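Colleagues,

Please find the record for the two-part complex below.
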Amino acid sequence: MSQTSPSSTHNLRADGARLWATIHETAAFGGTPNGGINRLTLSAEDGQVRDWFRDACEAAGLAVSVDALGTQYALRRGRDMSRPPVAFGSHLDTQPTGGKFDGVLGVLAGLEVMRTLNDAGIETEAPLMVVNWTNEEGSRFAPAMMASAAYAGDFTADEILAKRDAAGVTVAEALDAIGYRGDVAVGGQTIGAFVELHIEQGPILEAEAKTIGVVEGGQGIAWFDGAITGFESHAGTTPMPRRRDALLALSEFALAAERIALDHAPSAVATVGEAAILAPSRNVVPGRVAFTLDIRDPRSATLDAMEAALHAAAAEIGARRNLTVELARIWRKEPVPFDARVVAAVEAAAENLGHPRRRIVSGAGHDACNLAARVPTAMIFVPCKDGVSHNESESATQGDCAAGADVLLQTVLRLANAPAEAPPA
Amino acid sequence: MSQTSPSSTHNLRADGARLWATIHETAAFGGTPNGGINRLTLSAEDGQVRDWFRDACEAAGLAVSVDALGTQYALRRGRDMSRPPVAFGSHLDTQPTGGKFDGVLGVLAGLEVMRTLNDAGIETEAPLMVVNWTNEEGSRFAPAMMASAAYAGDFTADEILAKRDAAGVTVAEALDAIGYRGDVAVGGQTIGAFVELHIEQGPILEAEAKTIGVVEGGQGIAWFDGAITGFESHAGTTPMPRRRDALLALSEFALAAERIALDHAPSAVATVGEAAILAPSRNVVPGRVAFTLDIRDPRSATLDAMEAALHAAAAEIGARRNLTVELARIWRKEPVPFDARVVAAVEAAAENLGHPRRRIVSGAGHDACNLAARVPTAMIFVPCKDGVSHNESESATQGDCAAGADVLLQTVLRLANAPAEAPPA
């Protein structure tokens, strides 16, 4: 191999057909009749795809290690091994009725980057590393994204190892069962920067005909539980003005939440996802309703403003309708801004490749959002059909996957070949 | 006994204390620890209260007969036995967690009317009859009010006898088990007029400090099943303008139904009593909602106008939010106007007794609403606390019960002593 400068690699492209073939080859591990994947973390099928990934990485000359939570790290040497590796990847586990792209694209595009560099005989300054994070999905073990969270220091390895699935099996037992309890200390693998390629899992890029989303960060999220207490009464004998109808109060509140989100357009969202009448009956005025509320925005100040407006709406509705509207915040996660230099590298790569692109914020959680607390991080989004994900019908085009892999390739070349003082660890 | 004219009986009053005592004595049959009654129709407890009622009627010199559906008729002879009896009563069955007044008041006040006339030695022109209708509540066997419906010709006796409860027991078997399958043909008992005293089961009289409701008729009712089909999507990644949120559509529809009812104030009511998100999740935009709608008004034309407005609202919401709002009417019962002459008799009785009163429409269904199709009928309402009924906490005052019994007494005297050509049979 010979060292090459960024200027000499800017025409390099990933092999989109090879990437597409690996996506479909590995989809057989846990493949479902409907064309999706059922590959819960640390299942036998997850073990199979991990073995396939390890073998493919080793065949590409990478050195594969595994940490105590099963996360796989595949290292490609750089010219300056004193520099921390530029890492990229995502996850190979899926939802029980997951699709072929969520997580998988980021890992296999990472492998494709390595193969492309090998084929071109290119050596980077900093080493490169493709990573397969354990249990991003959270379907079998909670919390989701637990390995990247432990890497970032949010949990100890022992806390995670003791988590149990619905059958009572611990993470430790599940790792041992498939031989993936590795010897690298969790958090011990140094990473200089992290880039995650992922399908958008939303409709924006498709709707705007953009191929690449340059992800600036992850949204902040606040979750609330709500309860409305009015009075159950006879649907035939209770005049309208005398009613204390909890469902009508919920209706006003849900519409108020929509309006409050639109007041902070285009970034804010608000969702009443669950709502249930207690003891519902066709001929009884609903007296009690329980509901949930999910609000998100990339700015903490906007979350604060929305929360204040929501409480004001609840109080106004309750007073006017002579009932109580309770709203309790049960969780809040602050927005995660990605690293400006890594984001700029993604944007420059997309620009040089000539792909239609836009800045975007991740609406869903990703391992990258955890990594960002410790490592300069960004993400690359590509469109998925109708914004559908976590579904066997999840779909992305070969061209968009190849475009994402090209942007990933060019981004990591920029980062790995940049002067050594950056990015800061 | 001596025959007396209405003018000589206008100072006659029922014995409110005796009525109150019988209400509490019979409340022991199926009495609950919380002060309510669990006396499902044709249960052992219903058999006990029927026996008590038969014995009390016979002790008052009444001739008790039972029809093939178990309805009890207790006849007090009149001077002119060629006239059909003026009948009054209600039902002695209760909801599983029913109160002490629903139905019971009407039957026991009827008994009190008989006892009062006996004590005063008064003979009426037409005979009188107190009736205990089988299965008004419908909790054990559907439909509710089945005996009065069969009396009115809506069902044959055999249709009703074959109905089964949740345990598979037929009405015929349940009647036999307590010895109440009588020999009078259903509908064979001629009735000249019918008056039912009942608690309002609504809040209007209490709120307006009226003692007596002069009931003009029963409301018309229409029931609908509704379904909203939008699209489930990710609560974090789907921008507000791109959502097809079924819960927000339901919210707008429920508020539209409220507004449409208020457009026909004060009589109309509209209630979304059941509403459920299909596959609800805290972080998923609701894609599908099922709901019910109940609308009522005393005028058919108003029901028509409301239904048209509701369909228009559903179409407008569906088009604007890019989803479908389906609304299917599953049942409609036309309004039941009561007999003007019987209503006038109730009103005159209340007026002469000096009770604060108002015309009112029954929001709930009653045996009287079935009888009205065949027999000149009206009802008398008295207040109940907070409008609560079908609940162990159901409550009415001794004074209001006594006032209701007085109005019932004076009404039936007016009807029974009126010239024989009226009311028409």
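The mean pLDDT of chain A is 95.

Comments are welcome before we finalize the supplementary table.
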